[in-house]
Amino acid sequence: MHISEKRSAFAYGFLALLIIAFIFTRSLKPAELSGAESEAVMGFLRQIIGLFIRLPEAQDDYLVRKIAHFCEFAALGFSVKGLFTSVGTMRGQTLRSLPLLFCLLTAISDELLQTLIPGRSCEVKDVVIDFCGSLCGVGVMLLAQYLRKKRLMRKSHC
Fold it and tell me: What would the pLDDT profile of 39-93 be if each residue is shown by its tens digit?
């Protein structure tokens, strides 16, 4: 068990906790407040994106919310995959499916949490979007791990 693996596990675990806290605090906001935040973000994005393309007004808020779901869970998938890889390396185990299971359970918990908040609801399509984001994040981490391993193998052969 190397110190670097412990540090990686701690860093990825801490990052995952921060991302989960961010996701859940967004879900705990009433619909009015959440909608106002989305509108503010969309106003900012409209100024930037508007330099390149024009989005139909009716889809702005919907698009921002769905992209946010995807990105939050892509970051979670990335960090959780890093965490489980580090922990698995320390224990001499392969924990391949656990990151996706963890992200799926987090997505389901997030949507169920929203049923307790005024004006919010549980949406199956959001769970699907969240899970797709998780798949993307895990995929990016797998690619990063593969490229790192390939680079280290090239270095060791020199």
Answer: 777 777 777 776 777 766 656 677 778 888 999 999 999 999 999 998 876 666 6
Amino acid at the residue 87: V
Contact, 54 vs 140, CB < 8 A? no
Q: Measured between alpha carbons, how far is residue 113 from residues 15, 19, 23, 60, 69 in Å?
A: 21, 16, 11, 25, 15
pLDDT exceeds cutoff 80 at 101: yes
For the chain, which residues make up each domain, given as ranges? 3-157
If phi > 0 it is left, if psi is from -120 to 50 it is alpha, else beta; for residue 92 that is left
> Which residue type, as a one-letter code, is found at position 19?
I
- Which residue blocks in the chain are alpha helix, DSSP H? 3-27, 31-49, 60-91, 98-114, 124-157
pLDDT surpasses 90 at 136? yes
pTM of the model: 0.84
Tracing tokens 């393309």 back to the chain, one arrives at: 53
Contact 38, 61 (CB under 8 A): yes
Distance from CA of residue 52 to its chain's centroid? 27
* Tokens (6 digits) for 45: 């994005």
121-126 contacts: CB < 8 A, separation 24 or more? 126/66, 126/69
Report residue 22 as tokens: 């961010």
